[in-house]
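To close the section, here is one more complete example, presented without commentary so you can practise reading it yourself. The ligand is zinc ion.
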Amino acid sequence: MRSILKALKSGKVLISDGGWGTFLHQLGLGVGECPEIWNVTHRKEVLSIAQSYIDAGSDMILTNSFGAHPLRLEHFGFQDRAFELNEAAASISREAAGDNHFVLGSIGPSSAILMMGEVSEEKVYDGFRIQVEALSKGGADAICVETMSAIDEASLAVRAAKEFTDLEVICTFTYQKTVHGYYRTMMGVSPADMISAIKEAGADIIGANCGVGTDQMIEVVHEIREADQTTPVLVHVNAGIPVIQNNVTVFPESPQMMSMKMKDLVDAGADIIGGCCGTTPEHIRAFIKEIRG
Ligand SMILES: [Zn+2]
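Output:
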């Protein structure tokens, strides 16, 4: 079995991939369309994204399954196809990754807010179970629970991955800077609280994704490292905060702008670096050039 933890033992920084959502829209995914149905209706396009990141030099790539929790698929009427869509997502990325690159099965929030009591914990947990089992069957090497903001939900996803697969588990939260200058998720979770909760749930790798550009992500990693010096840290950094220009969403940070700060991100304590919204294969190429020379 491929092990990311083992690969990190050499001390080498590993490179993940860049944005998927923005890439899918570029290839024609409509606004309000379900991205994960493309795993069966537009397999070739989804495969081309995975392949682009492998070609750019990524050591690992994600899967097109971020929104494939049954509760989220329900918005499109696809809740009964969760297993199929997650398995297809993993098999597409596996095909691109071959034997020498890692596939991280992406799991985003379920869209249910547990704190509000809209749905039961069991229902959210069952959905994560379907996702992790299908991603594992499709060929994922690890599960990447990402863009989380609530501890209870993130813990359920991590626990499901640990209980129903033997894969390594990554869990990243999305932080924003508060007016007081420190970082919290939308649900008010601090990096320190996140780390202790998800490590207890079984996470092997911790980190942050989305929400902020490179400068702020460096600060986030510093905060994570203040709370935990030993657990490997993965970051997927946005190409800045999107702005609307002439009705088009534009991400302000170019490959060159971001790559200039890669050494600082590594010095802050990141072990695995990739991009989130707005980043492209060109960003990944620039990161690799900067980090590996
Ligand atoms: Zn993002």
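Once you have examined the tokens, check your reading against these statements. Residues 121-138 form the longest helix (18 residues). Residues 110 and 124 are 7 Å apart (CA to CA).
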